[in-house]
Design goal:
The complex is a heterodimer.
Chain A (H helix, E strand, L loop, with lengths): L6 H14 L6 H24 L4 E8 L4 E7 L2 H21 L9 H20 L3 H20 L5 H30 L9 E2 L3 H18 L7 H8 L2 H27 E2 L5 H22 L4 H21 L3 H32 L15 H14 L6 H19 L3 H4 L1 H27 L15 H19 L2 H12 L2 H8 L4 H25 L28 H4 L4 H9 L5 H19 L4 H22 L1
Parallel strand pairs in A: 3-4
Antiparallel strand pairs in A: 1-2
Helix pairs in contact in A: 1-2, 1-4, 2-3, 2-4, 3-4, 3-9, 3-12, 3-17, 3-18, 4-5, 4-9, 5-6, 5-9, 6-7, 6-8, 7-9, 8-11, 9-11, 9-12, 10-11, 10-16, 11-12, 11-14, 11-16, 12-13, 12-14, 12-17, 12-18, 13-16, 13-17, 14-16, 14-17
Chain B lengths: L4 H14 L8 H22 L4 E4 L10 E4 L1 H24 L6 H20 L3 H19 L5 H32 L4 H11 L3 H17 L9 H7 L2 H28 L3 H23 L4 H28 L4 H36 L10 H4 L1 H15 L5 H15 L3 H26 L15 H16 L1 H5 L1 H20 L1 H4 L3
Antiparallel strand pairs in B: 1-2
Classes of the chains: A mainly alpha, B mainly alpha.
Chain lengths: 620, 504
């Protein structure tokens, strides 16, 4: 009985729940308490990580038919992710202190953050499927409350998010119940179902839907961009960018590697690979043409999940390790990007790319953090995004080499899609960097100030991690990921082909030489700098700005793509909109039947009675 | 031990006839007295938990006289009636200031309570019919209490359909008497097990299913409810949706089918069909509604479907002589959901009343942003919404979970899927409520909206705490064994061992 396992779960949940109902006058107190609790959770999680083996059982419900135990154990994978999840919790709580988003309904905001933290800890430690589901839904509800604290129209975004994730939670419940009926137990570590008949496959698909929806992959992905546009950015950085990814991919690994025995290269890994690559390519294509910073980042948050799913779909040790590593890296750089976006929005009051520009000199720290994270997400060596994408590519090639199923044979397709997606990611971040930090400053933004230290510190910590995990990528792999997956030797061997430290050294030397050349040439030749002569006309500053939003107009006006983009913009590919329309049609039909005329209602009663008579009297 | 059974009927009945006398300056006394009565009934209900007993009225012997019977199932219902009527009465103290003739209202309210208590305690089907009529007629009057056009129309529709149901029930009672020669449930049950079902009894059972199905508002007998429940004053809506359709409808159905007629496969399928159609049709009607209380009323239909589905599933497993373990799980889910629904639906109606009183409208589209103005009403409403949508750790989650697990274990994967999907649509429609009422932009004309404090908030807070605390009813073994399990056992044992029921 290691009660320490209970603390990071129970303490944030209990404190967070109480906090939801506090009056507004206690807002400051909530802030401080939330920070204290999140730090405490981080400390607990580090101690849990260093615990060799621990288990905690508390029988919550014991019926004759089944028992429900709060069964917490330290699994290597779960406890390593737990540590990072709690770390993100602390960083975001700190960031929120200065963020404008958390001012309205302050108690609800911090209470929900604690609920999200506690729920995540529960998911990562729990070994009982039903309790996993309970924590899973608590995190969903926390996301709903957090999004709803945003400004205007956030109520719509919150509703959509809860509806779509709620749908996946429903499929989780159904899947969990089916797993129970098939295997007779809820204890995850005791379940091992062969996926050879229909029922286990359906159960697998139901659970998979829950996992990938939380992570934000297609087809139930549209909550993410809507949420991203209206929710406070700190919320996006905490949940969809970091925790939801960690949890979704964690669950995907639990079901693919533990609860279900998948045939490598079989139909199910083909399904995963298709979802992965389709998510990468389609989401990045949409992201490229967005004009709103938060929406653009959200589409990238979808696109990047594709790499993680693809890595897991390869069913090779290096691919899976790459997927997990990418999950971690993504949480780091995407969180950082959202925080930068939030800082820019706080400082300028807008997230529309067309209205921004030239902030590089005015917000240097934000610029540096954003630059590093942007290069990292685009997979530029030697940053961390490259290291994990490299491993995923490796896994895909490996799959083609060793597996004979349909998924294995089609490996060039997966590789092509993944690399194509990476290139487009770079393209769209060039657009972001140009639009926000380079180009000319619009007159309105001349007085913009750097964000406060409480906001820049979390961004810089995350940017530093991007560099560190890229250059010394063996450290996180050896320390956390490989032991957690139990696939050390072969993967280590495959990693030998990329020497990040040497590459970094060469890069730095290259940059140094370039700097010297620049420096020397600046002295060697006097250059005169004068304003552009425009035939004596004076041009307004704002007219001279070249907005980055025009960069990829050629893509969005390409034949064929143009039509697809416009259909997508109208929401025809959005399952939420489509099922909403279907539901309303059904409701309309039913309401038409309820016309309020008494004789009609009496007729129903008589018909109903006749049916009952038919069923009950005929048979006896 | 003899529980004070007649008191459950006698106290509210006497009080109901005393209260209208207290006019003018004595109104506060009437209010106090009415609240005292409901609190006493709640205390009596809590004391009766875990006990059984019978009481012969006037000491007449059974075939001649009538008797009251208390067992696990009836004490579960008594508890629900006690809790909800206490909360609704407390809420009425301030809410009913908007109406005139408060003592008359209290009098009708208590008559309805007396009728419901009588129905769940009665061991005699004709006596049950009498109490059914007392409760029904009081509720017709209460639905039309506002006296406006819409309310009177709703009340009239409710009365016509309700009278049809009563006629069906009365006809059924006559048929049963003709075929068995008795009106006492235990004796009827014994006779039926001796002579078996004949066509007359089957006809009577069909009439009961239709009649009580109408009282329970099961599809296709539901048409009166969406008019009647929203038209009543909010505390009465809470009583109607919270307990009346259960005590007069589902309880009697379960009692008659399990303990009197005995379960069989066709009747179990009838229950399941009624349950599933109510769940699905009710929820899809609800999700498109823009009237707050009407939306809630449609959800009552849908949620009663869950209860009937659970009970029907249990009946089917028992009738097929399957494992009683799973039958008891299904019935536990159904009955627990009954209790849960009583609490969270009453709370939702009270919250809707509080919102209506503060803003003067029930239209979702005319509201918005009330979280700023009415934080406590919002908090209680959010808890109730989470409960009805099955968000853990609130009570609705546990009962739905048990139902889904029972359905899956019995091999009805499709039914489990329907249950889960209906739950999802329920979630959607309550997200809609939250979105349009409490979140979003505050319209200009509502900027001066005031939170309702005092008794109204007290009643809502009481029910909100119950939404969370009632999870313990199933989680804590001690509570489960005394409250829920006896009720489940009544039905399961009646389904498995016919002899056990005749004991009382």
């Amino acid at each position: 009985m290691d009660t320490i396992l209970l603390y990071p779960v129970i303490v944030p949940l209990a404190v967070g729940f109480v906090m939801l109902f506090l009056p507004r006058s206690l807002g400051r107190l909530s802030q401080v308490v939330a920070l204290m609790v999140s730090v405490a959770a981080l400390v607990f999680s580090i101690r849990i990580f260093r615990l060799d083996e621990g288990a905690y059982t508390w029988t919550v419900l014991a019926l004759d038919a089944f028992t429900l135990d709060l069964l917490l154990t330290t699994q290597p994978l779960g406890s390593f992710i737990l540590m990072f999840a709690m770390g993100f919790g602390v960083l975001i709580t700190l960031y929120s202190f200065k963020s404008s988003a958390s001012v309205r309904r302050i108690n609800e905001y911090y209470g929900s953050i604690l609920l999200a933290i506690g729920g995540s800890a529960g998911i990562l430690l729990c070994d009982h499927l039903l309790f996993l589901l309970i924590f899973w839904e608590i995190v969903t509800a926390a996301l709903y409350l957090l999004i709803s604290t945003g400004g205007k129209d956030s109520n719509f975004a919150a509703t959509k998010s809860f509806a779509m994730i709620g749908a996946s939670d429903a499929s989780f419940l159904l899947g969990a119940a089916m797993v129970w009926a098939l295997s007779g137990t809820f204890v995850i570590s005791q379940i091992s179902l062969a996926t050879t008949s229909a029922l286990p496959v359906i159960a697998f698909l139901l659970l998979m839907l829950a996992a990938i929806t939380k992570a934000g992959a297609m087809p139930l992905h549209t909550w993410l961009p809507t949420g991203g546009e209206y929710a406070p950015t700190s919320v996006m950085a905490l949940l969809p960018a970091a925790l939801d990814k960690l949890l979704g991919i964690y669950l995907l690994i639990v079901i693919t590697r533990g609860m279900f025995v998948l045939k490598s290269g079989g139909a199910l890994s083909l399904v995963l690979a298709i979802i992965g690559v389709a998510t990468i390519v389609i989401a990045v294509m949409i992201a490229m043409v967005q004009h709103n910073l938060k929406r653009l980042l959200s589409y990238h948050a979808i696109s990047q999940v594709g790499y993680m799913i693809l890595g897991i779909a390869t069913m090779t040790p290096i691919g899976i390790a790459g997927g997990v590593f990418h999950m971690l890296n993504h949480a780091i750089y995407k969180s950082c990007l959202f925080l930068c976006g939030g800082a820019v929005e706080d400082a300028t009051g807008t997230a529309e790319l067309e209205e921004l520009g030239g902030l590089g000199k005015r917000m240097p720290l934000t610029f540096v953090a954003c630059l590093i994270a942007a290069l990292s997400i685009s997979g530029i060596p030697p940053l961390n995004g490259f290291a994990s994408k490299w491993m995923v590519y490796h896994g895909v090639v490996e799959m083609g080499r060793t597996q004979t199923g349909a998924a294995g044979v089609m490996w060039p397709l997966w590789l092509l899609g993944a690399m194509f997606g990476s290139a487009l990611t770079l393209a769209s971040f060039v657009k972001i960097l140009h639009s926000i930090f380079l180009s000319r400053v619009p007159d309105r933004l001349r007085e913009t100030k750097e964000a406060s230290g409480l906001q820049t510190a979390p961004m810089l910590v995350l940017a530093f991690l991007c560099v560190f995990f890229g250059v010394f990528y063996r450290v996180p792999l050896r320390q956390f990921i490989l032991p957690a997956l139990g696939a050390a030797e072969e993967t280590e061997a495959a990693l030998g082909s990329w020497n990040a430290i040497l590459a970094t050294a060469l890069l730095l030397i290259g940059i140094g030489v370039g700097a010297i050349v620049l420096f020397v040439s600046a002295f060697a030749k006097q250059v005169r700098s004068v304003p552009t002569w425009a035939c004596g006309e004076t041009q307004a500053n704002d007219d001279m700005i070249i907005p980055g939003t025009h960069f990829y107009k050629t893509v969005s006006s390409m034949k064929g793509l143009k039509q697809l983009y416009s259909v997508q913009r109208r929401g025809h590919f959005d399952l939420y909109d489509q099922s909403g329309r279907a539901g309303l049609a059904l409701t309309g039909l039913l309401r038409w039947l309820h016309n309020g005329v008494l004789p009609v209602y009496l007729t129903w009663v008589v018909l109903g009675l006749l049916l009952v008579l038919l069923m009950l009297c005929n048979i006896w | 031990m003899n529980a004070p059974l007649p008191m459950f009927v006698a106290i509210p009945l006497v009080a109901a006839f005393v209260l209208p006398v207290l006019k003018g300056g004595l109104k506060p006394v009437a209010t106090l007295l009415a609240n005292l009565v409901t609190l006493t009934l709640l205390a009596l209900a809590v004391m009766s938990v875990g006990k059984t007993g019978t009481y012969a009225m006037g000491n007449w012997t059974i075939p001649l006289g009538i008797n009251l019977v208390l067992d696990g199932l009836s004490s579960l219902l008594l508890l629900a009636i006690g809790v909800i009527s206490a909360a609704a009465m407390l809420f009425s103290v301030r809410y009913m200031e908007q109406y005139t003739a408060k003592p008359k209202y209290f009098s009708l309210f208590l008559l309805m309570v007396a009728g419901m208590n009588g129905v769940v305690l009665s061991g005699d089907i004709f006596n049950l019919y009498v109490f059914l009529e007392i409760a029904s007629i009081a509720s017709y009057a209460l639905v039309g209490f506002g006296g406006e056009h819409e309310e009177l129309e709703a009340s009239f529709k409710y009365m016509v359909l309700g009278s049809v149901a009563s006629a069906l029930v009365l006809f059924g009672v006559a048929l049963v008497y003709a075929n068995t020669g008795s009106l006492n449930m235990a004796q009827i049950s014994a006779t039926i097990r001796q002579i078996g079902m004949n066509i007359g009894l089957a006809f009577a059972l069909s009439l009961f299913v239709a009649g009580f199905g109408l009282k329970a508002a099961l599809v296709p007998f539901h048409a009166w409810l969406p008019d009647a429940h929203p038209s009543a004053p909010a505390p009465i809506s809470a009583m109607l949706s919270g307990v009346l359709i259960k005590a007069l409808g589902v309880y009697v159905l379960a009692r008659l089918i399990f303990t009197v007629f005995g379960v069989s496969v066709p009747v179990a399928w009838v229950l399941i069909a009624l349950g599933v159609s109510s769940m699905v049709i009710g929820v899809f009607l609800a999700v498109g509604q823009w009237d707050f209380k009407r939306l809630l009323a449609y959800h009552s239909i849908s949620q009663m479907g869950y209860v009937v589905l659970g009970v029907g599933l249990g009946a089917l497993i028992l009738a097929r002589e399957g494992d009683p373990l799973w039958a008891s799980l299904a019935i536990l889910g159904g009955l627990f959901h009954l209790l849960n629904h009583a609490v969270f639906k009453s709370l939702l109606f009270l919250a809707s009343g509080s919102v209506e009183m503060a803003t003067g409208t029930r239209q979702l589209k005319k509201m918005g942003g009330l979280v700023e103005r009415m934080p406590y009403t919002r908090a209680t409403c959010a808890i109730a919404s989470a409960s009805i949508a099955g968000v853990p750790p609130f009570n609705g989650f546990w009962s739905k979970l048990i139902l889904v697990l029972a359905a899956v274990q019995a091999g009805f994967y499709l039914l489990a899927a329907v249950t889960v999907i209906v739950s999802l649509v329920t979630l959607l429609s309550f997200l809609k409520v939250q979105r349009y009422v409490f979140l979003g932009q505050l319209p200009e004309d509502l900027e001066r909206t005031q939170e309702n404090g005092g008794f109204m908030l007290g009643a809502m807070a009481f029910l909100a705490v119950l939404c969370l605390a009632m999870s313990l009813l199933v989680l804590l073994p001690g509570l489960r064994e005394t409250v829920l399990q006896p009720a489940v056992d009544v039905l399961v044992q009646a389904g498995t061992a016919p002899a056990a029921v005749v004991a009382h």
